[in-house]
Amino acid sequence: MFDERDLGRGLLSVTGRGWFAKGAAALAVLGVASLLILAPFGGGTVTQAACPPGAPGQAGDPKANGPLRAVQVGWAKLIDSVAVERGLPGKATLIALMTALVETDLQNLAYGDRDSVGLFQQRPEVGWGTAEELKQWHYATTAFFGGRGSPFPPGLVDIDGWPSMPLGDVAQRVQRSAYPDRYALREQEARGIAADAGIDLTRSGNPYAGRPNAPAGGSAVDGLQDASNNCGQSGGGLSSGKPVDGVWPEQKPSVTDPTGTGGMVTPRTAAWVAEARKNLGTLSMSCWDAHLWNPTSDHPRGKACDVMVGADGRKSAQARARGDQIANWAIKTAAQTGVHYVIWYGKIWSARRGTWIPYNGGGVYNPTDATGGHFDHVHVSLW
């Protein structure tokens, strides 16, 4: 689904890099400038052409006309095909997707800042190749990954020790952007696109793709298992942060549960459900429950909801990415919605602490079980 939030992110990435004039011109050509007047949480389906007339292309390119997410998924599959072809781990694909999201919103562009073109906005002037070469996704992606036979600027596999570096730092080492902090901010979006594309980001591989004189011990790496992948976050793809302050008066359950349980929830809980549905799309969710085995739970008090992710996140990359997305949105908006704590993927986040810590089951649940450890659903409690 491509909505005004996607457009806003794309514009921020363009205008922040000094592309305002070109971004505006592209919008005029594409006929989507009217999207700017949409409501902040609109859910209508709109489309965006990936490139203006005269855009680059080769056989097998994703169609430019269509929902942006579908276009992005198509490019993600092609980028990953090069990583697989090179024997690279899933982590390499994730970094490439994060980079392309910042540079072009994961589209193959025939224009850019100065002489930049293509998926990664590589510049002919600094040695990446000719403009025509860089418009070809296979050449551009191969250049990004680097190694033998690649252009002069160092690519990912040319960076010693990259598997142990934060993902955003690796992207910056390749791109040498004036805005180095932006790559890490697109990690969750990249994970979601990868999940939609069926890409295994946990895939093992050779991080240096057989590069001569590669660092010792670099013959293989597990895709995304080491702690260095968190970019300062806690636990997989989970965002962390500072404690969330706020005053939330006590509320009684006085609203019929909008998730259809037949029970009653607080107005704050009902409002959270409405916002979650508006911002996260279709959700399998249940709030009120008698919880006879745990009467102190927030569920019978109408102050908690469980959002199912469809599978055990330990066994499904798609379920894990969806759970991360839900949990991160819940804590990002906690100051506005009154979220008290969140439990997901064997960890618990609280507004008072502001960080994730291991979840031990509270003496009620088995934290190693898919449900007890909250690997198959995200629990959200409100004040």
UniProtKB/TrEMBL annotation:
Region spans: Disordered: 204-264
Transmembrane feature ranges: 20-41
Pfam families, alphabetized: VldE
Domain ARB-07466-like C-terminal, first and last residues per copy: 262-363
Alphabetically ordered keywords of this record: Membrane, Transmembrane, Transmembrane helix
Protein name in UniProt: ARB-07466-like C-terminal domain-containing protein
Organism: Kribbella solani
